[in-house]
Specification:
Layout (H helix, E strand, L loop, with lengths): L1 H62 L11 E4 L7 H10 L5 E5 L6 H7 L6 E5 L6 H11 L5 E6 L4 H11 L3 E6 L6 H18 L5
Parallel strand pairs: 1-2, 1-4, 2-3, 4-5
């Protein structure tokens, strides 16, 4: 009789222990999942804060760069990139009497627009050149070659490129640079792209001399 009672008590005890063990395992599983979620949310918050911090820090560099009022210059340099009206702006400035010549960076395999500009008849000189390398650095080297006896040049490009172009061209040529913004409208995705692209250009430029 005593043995039977002992077995019953033992079975009951083991059953309770098993249920308790299962409860703890389930609890630990939920606790682990909850901890992982908290870490994930925390990491996401840190990442978003970092991106926003970088965006704000670089805002005056890419979004609100220093632009200049055009003055009479020796030449107008139109930097390569999208055909967003920069070529037309450069030509209109020359037509308005700001410079006797326009330099058009032509790093394209073929562009009907640039081809027409390069062979058009104007009251001022138009010089099209293929920079080497086909980057802002190549354009800076071309400016150094063309502008050995110049003192002031108007440069036409788009907003996110202005600060870096000012830095690169300033390393290549010692004259006065006046930057004019073509005023191109950019999508949020394009802004994000140019934040990365222009920043990478700064890093790359740190290891290359003009």
């Amino acid at each position: 009789m005593l043995r039977r009672v002992t077995r019953v008590v033992l079975r009951a005890t083991l059953g309770v222990q098993g249920e308790t063990r299962g409860f703890y395992l389930r609890f630990l599983g939920l606790a682990g999942y909850d901890r992982a979620m908290r870490l994930m949310v925390r990491g996401l918050v840190v990442a978003v804060a970092f991106v926003l911090g970088v965006w704000v820090m670089l805002w005056p560099v890419y979004v609100r760069p220093v632009v200049d009022e055009p003055l009479v210059a020796d030449a107008i340099l139109v930097l390569g990139g999208a055909h967003d009206g920069r070529e037309e702006l450069g030509l209109s400035l020359a037509a308005a009497g700001y410079a006797p010549r326009v330099l058009i960076s032509d790093p394209y395999e073929y562009s009907g627009l640039v081809n027409r500009i390069c062979h058009g008849g104007y009251s001022f000189e138009v010089v099209c050149f293929d920079p080497s390398p086909r980057t802002t650095l190549g354009e800076g080297r071309a400016l150094r070659s063309f502008g050995a006896n110049w003192s002031r040049v108007i440069v036409v490009t788009f907003t996110p490129h202005i600060s870096r172009a000012r830095h690169v061209l300033g390393e290549c040529w010692s004259g006065e640079l006046l930057f004019v913004d073509v005023g191109r409208e950019l999508t949020p995705w394009r802004w994000a792209y140019d934040y990365v692209y222009q920043s990478a250009g700064y890093v790359k430029g740190a290891f290359v001399e003009c």
